[in-house]
Automatic annotation (TrEMBL):
Belongs to the ATP-dependent AMP-binding enzyme family. Residues 475-553 form the AMP-binding enzyme C-terminal domain. The keyword Acetylation applies. One of its GO terms (biological process) is acetyl-CoA biosynthetic process. This is acetate--CoA ligase. GO terms for cellular component: cytosol. It is an enzyme of class 6 (ligase).
Length: 576
């Protein structure tokens, strides 16, 4: 366990959430449900609660979405968002889409991404947002597994969609100008034309709170990415955590820097803020310190949620960059996705005069589980304490709770409102999340201290978090062995001061091939072009053989130990 650092006291008298112990003592999810009228009527739909509900009040003229990138600078009220998403719901119905169908999005950040996602939910279909940097294999795996019938994409991305080889895909809706195919084994539509044709009034599909809402694909240590299914009921947790952890208030301008292709970009880039009726800023384009600080200044951002990699890059850009901008609008700053070093928090106190609030959760949990709260003293380096309505514990290999100070499996008492409901088409994998009766196993290792604060210790599996993005080693290895020169490949995460981890690949070549810098570069770009840039190995080592168990499984843990100069542990099963 890490040394317990000094605590940083909260600013007093401002937060939505009362002090931690009081909040925990009185907490009930049933009370939170009463914030929504469906508690009485039984009729629920996330898009209604996030948008339409506000469009029926004085908030109709309040800005819901500020959108900007290098070319666009636009704002949309709650009423605009209601009408646009209604229209899109009608577009989908007009091409025969029904409740429960999977409607996937493969688009760069744009207002159209947000309105079509909401329109999809309005007709009771299940949305599946894909990260725009995905290449063909990544897109194919997800569309194949989900059996999506509709894809919303753009002419610039259509080359990466193998639409003639996806039997379930029936319709493609193209957003924006540009040449694109017009026929094939699917029907093509143009977003602008279809929106023009359809009405802004829609009969919303009321669904059951347990009906499917969103599929996020995420990586594990083996196999293809898994489709984690969340249901409309997740709103209870997303609403309450956004209110208490992001501390959202009526006049806030909230900026979550995550893309909706990742769970943070939907749970807290769409649902959390809009369930609370708050103005939400989306900034497209690429990261640069000047651009980000300029964005905060221009839009007067008051609540800012980002990731450790971004904060480390901002720290690396130096304090001068901060001084050029007026960041006085910032009230609350948050970080998620990987460990936030205490050093970064101390730097944040120096330059922003704000605490950066680390919190922990994962795709499977749908909402935040452990957090540093605005009104709670912070121990830099700790993830904080479990959300008032949630129980988390550190368990040993047999599922027994460990005492404070000991490292073990970070597990959550099953049944929190935004818990995943299944793994799409893979009930067996879903069951594996629950190795001990009543507990979900996160596959993270952590410890808890005497004061109840949780400390992250590492992953319990081979999953790599690089620049805050989760990468499964198996996907990268599978891609590498598709290359004609590669006999075998193994991939590990190697610690890196900025990115948290980078991907390092160990490769054994087929007979007739020899190592060269060109070949290493070619292999890396092969992964980049096939999967995604963030999945490409930044380091590569070509070896004569890879360590294997006698049953033929490549031992990633041994490669990692060798790489880090650490003891390799039990080698008894290793093939000699
Ligand atoms: C890691 C992102 C340390 C962890 C919301 C988890 C963290 C995985 C933290 C989930 C944190 C997330 N400190 N590690 N505050 N937050 N992680 O599914 O290993 O993309 O299991 O969800 O990121 O990543 P995912």
């Amino acid at each position: 366990m890490k040394v317990v650092a000094d605590t940083i006291a909260p600013k007093t008298g401002q937060a939505n959430m009362p002090d931690y112990d009081t909040a925990r003592a009185d907490f009930s999810w049933e009370e939170v449900e009463k914030s929504f009228s469906w508690h009485e009527t039984g009729k629920v739909n996330m898009a209604h609660e996030a948008i339409d509900r506000h469009a029926e009040t004085w908030r109709r003229n309040k800005v819901a979405l500020y959108y900007s990138d290098d070319e666009r600078d636009e704002k949309y009220t709650f009423q605009d968002m209601k009408f646009l998403s209604n229209k899109f719901g009608n577009v989908l119905r007009s091409i025969g889409t029904e409740k429960g169908d999977r409607v996937f999005l493969f688009l760069s950040r744009s207002p159209e991404l947000y309105t079509s996602l909401l329109g999809t939910l309005k007709i009771g279909a299940i949305t599946g947002p894909l990260f725009e940097a995905f290449m063909e294999q990544a897109v194919r795996d997800r569309l194949e597994n989900s059996e999506a019938s509709v894809l919303i994409t753009s002419p610039s991305l259509i080359d990466r969609v193998p639409y003639n080889e996806l039997p379930h895909l029936e319709n493609i809706i193209l957003v924006g100008d540009g040449d694109a195919p017009e026929d094939g084994d699917v029907k093509f539509f143009r977003y602008e034309q279809e929106m023009e044709k359809n009405s802004r009034d829609l009969n919303i599909e009321w669904v059951d709170r347990e009906d499917g809402m969103i599929l996020h694909y995420t990586s594990g240590s083996t196999g293809k990415p898994k489709g984690v299914l969340h249901v409309h009921n997740a709103m209870i947790q997303q609403y309450q955590t956004a209110k208490w952890i992001m501390d959202l208030k009526e006049d806030d301008i909230y900026w979550c820097t995550a893309d909706p292709g990742w769970v943070t970009g939907t749970s807290y880039g769409i649902f959390g803020p809009w369930l609370n009726g708050v103005s939400n800023l989306v900034r497209g384009g690429r990261f640069s310190p000047e651009d980000w600080y300029g964005t905060i200044e221009k839009y007067q951002v008051s609540v800012w949620l980002s990731a450790p990699t971004a904060f480390r890059k901002l720290m690396g850009a130096g304090d001068e960059a901060v001084k050029k901008f007026d960041l006085s609008s910032l009230r609350h700053v948050l970080s998620v996705g990987e460990p936030l070093n205490a050093e970064v928090i101390h730097w944040g106190m120096d330059v922003y005069n704000r605490r950066i609030h680390d919190h922990w959760w994962m795709t499977e949990t749908g909402g935040v589980i452990i957090a540093n709260y605005p009104a709670m003293p912070m121990k830099p380096g700790s993830m904080g304490k479990p959300f008032p309505g949630v129980e988390a514990a550190i368990l040993d290999e047999e599922g027994n709770e460990l005492p404070p100070g000991q490292m073990g499996k970070l597990c959550i008492k099953s049944g929190w409102p935004s818990m995943l409901r299944t793994v799409w088409n893979n009930e067996e994998r879903f069951k594996k999340y629950f190795p001990f009766e009543g507990w979900f196993d996160s596959d993270d290792l952590a410890s808890r201290d005497e004061d109840g604060y949780f400390w992250f210790e590492g992953r319990d599996d081979d999953v790599i978090t690089t620049s805050g993005e989760r990468v499964g080693p198996f996907e990268v290895e599978s891609k590498l062995v598709e290359h004609p020169s590669v006999a075998e490949a193994a991939v590990i995460g190697k610690p890196d001061p900025v990115r948290g981890h980078i991907i390092k690949a160990f490769v054994a070549l087929k007979d007739g091939y020899t190592r060269s810098d060109e070949l290493e570069q070619e292999l890396s770009s092969f992964v980049k072009k096939g999967l995604a840039a963030h999945a490409a190995p930044r380091e590569m080592e070509i070896r004569d053989f890879l360590p294997k168990t006698r049953s033929g499984k490549i031992m990633r843990r041994v490669l990692k130990a060798w790489e880090l100069d650490e003891p390799a542990g039990d080698l008894s099963t290793m093939e000699k």
